Amino acid sequence: MAASMAVRSWREAINTQDFCKFLKEKNSKELSKKHQNESRSLICVYGSDLYIWNQPESQIIHCNLKSLGSSVDNTNNDLDTSQTQNSILDLTRNLSDDQSSSHQKLLVSSAITLEVENLEVNKSGSHIALYGPKGIKVVVLPRRWGKNGMFEGGRDVISCKTITIGERSFSGSTPLRIRQVSWHPGSNTDSHLAVLSSDNMFSVYDLYEPNDPLSVVNVNTGDVSCVQSPNKSLVGAALGETAVAFDFGLPLDLKPRSKRFQSGSAAPPVEVWPVYCVRGSGEILIIYSNLSNNRLLKLPVQGPVMMYPPAEDNYGVDACSILCLPTALPVIIISTCDGSVHHCVQLPVDKDNETLQSEAASVSSPAGCVWLSPLYESIPEPVLFVVETAELELCLGAPRVDEYPSGEEEDDFMCPIKLRKDPSSTDRYHCSHSAGVHSVALPWLHLVQQYFLDECGDFSMPEEKECVVEHLVCTKPLHSCPLSPVLGMDVVTDVTLGPTLLVLSSEYEFTALPIGLQYRMGLSGDICGVSVTSPLRRHSREPFSQHIANLLQRKASNPLLKSSSSAELSQQECFRLLSRTTQVLREEYIQRQDHARREIDTRIAVLAEHKEHQLEDVQRLMENRQALKEHAHTVAESVEAAKDYHQKLLRRLEGVLRGLQARVPVLSEAEKYMMKELSKLKDNMQLYKQNIEQVQTKQKYQAGQLSRSDAGPTPALQSRKLAQIHSILKEEGNDIQELKNDIRRLTLSLNCDLSA
């Protein structure tokens, strides 16, 4: 409960902080400028750290969001335990102190004259890149220590070192403009920047050598020459031949080329990063970037990549942004200025399909521009399969039931759309533009990946699944409203704060929206359940909760209205906006809830009927159980009586068998063997008797001799003879004792055999 209170508190308390008021005051003049009609990215989040660019003061404002949650949560707990007026005043004073120290100002060491439009923090959180159309600056963040990991222990104002990137190339006198800047994901030191300029050059800079790029590649031809006519660049941009955005994909390992007569060790594999560049015409090219020192490694620029199924307008001619989701098979997302978002899956070219190979060869780079290293294998050019196209509702249109009067139909609104990944989920991304913020989820991503990666071939391609588009924030409710572009959007990924989408409006107010629960309920059954091939079987196995979640899954929503404070709506426009909101509530909420309620009522009625039948079955089973218990007692008594009678029968049977065996006239083998043993014993007894008689005769003779010797004179050798006689008598006595023992044992055994 305390954790949830802390999560709610920082989201609600962020706009009450002093740095928000400071931003509003300093940027009040900037809000009225006409050139600020496009969305920007003036905020970035790293964990729980929020960085905001303040253009008038040329500084970065840092705020630790954890400190906001803890301070407000502690204040609420203290308010519950204290009711006196003095305690309230002390808590108010403490709250003001916490708010004043909850942020820091990071000053740059050199003056920044360029118009900053984007902030990018590297993956280690050590540098922040500031860039606009005319320059790039990198701010080195200071060290952290102390409470909440603040910079330099919590100092209010800190001077930071600033590095200028490509100062000679992007000076104010040159006509070049910077399209996009991103940190290179393959940098081990996290110090490389990838830059796309208006002359179709893709450059990689190192912070330790900021003036000279490490590599420069022409997006159109793959040439490393940087000389290009400015007029040609302007014409190319007008014709849509200029690259407007790029994004990195997952890395690839280049395998060394095997040679027949190769001596020595082969070249080690090299890791390259594919860079997906989109032109204004909607065509996609692929550059392979690497940060190794191998000068022999020169890779081609692939493309324009074929897109299937083909479209007449090549899926739009006003592309403005591109995104690559980090999945097993790359998912490419392309946005256009009219609000269309194309979801594509990258697939390798089928070697057996000659048509695809010929088409891919016809659109490949011209001869002389394909550079391949002789040490490594070439990379096959892929194709893109367009799964679906989503239409974003930039402005809230009138309800479909209303009909515009003649001459009052509104024109289509167009603006660039920026795409941003969601670090907390691979199947979701966010869109920001001049009219608001959208969140797009891809429920089919898991199934499509499984379909293309399945080797068994018994998996069916999902057809009914569509992307879930949520209109979160709308800053231009109607076409007549003035533009109020979004100045920043990022995702808070800290676990203690909860996944949150943080949006900065043109009025410098933050909107913190929790994400991750809007569509997950409708996907748990598809992702975690067992995949089946038949739709009927899948429907029969679908749990009722999943069925209700699918019924309640809405395709449209009412966003938060964050229009400009200068917007003035007439009563008719307000009524149209109210009608549209009411229609969405009726169709996407009330009707779906009514449908779900009817399904639940039907389910309840069926379950109640089943319950009655089951209760009757339970009552019948209880009665049968009691009857079985009584019958079991009777059966147990019968079993005991049967056991006793069985024992009696066994004893009688043993007696009968013994009597029968005794009356059999023919001896058995055992009896014959016993008779032989008895005859042997009888013969032995006769022999033993004879031996005993001989021993007795000898004993009498010796006794007589002894008596006669005692009466006569004692001979000279009487002592020695007596010793010999004693030894002989002792031996014969022992033999006699053994014979007696044998006779006794034989007598006992004979008696036992006779009794048996």
UniProtKB/TrEMBL annotation:
SUPFAM superfamilies: WD40 repeat-like. It is found in: Nucleus, Nuclear pore complex. Transmembrane segments: none annotated. Signal peptide: none annotated. InterPro entries: Nucleoporin_Nup88, NUP88/NUP82, WD40_repeat_dom_sf. Its main location: nucleus. Keywords: mRNA transport, Nuclear pore complex, Nucleus, Protein transport, Translocation, Transport. PANTHER family: NUCLEAR PORE COMPLEX PROTEIN NUP88, NUCLEOPORIN NUP84-RELATED. This is Nucleoporin 88. It comes from Aplysia californica (California sea hare). The lineage of its organism: Eukaryota, Metazoa, Spiralia, Lophotrochozoa, Mollusca. The gene is LOC101855078.
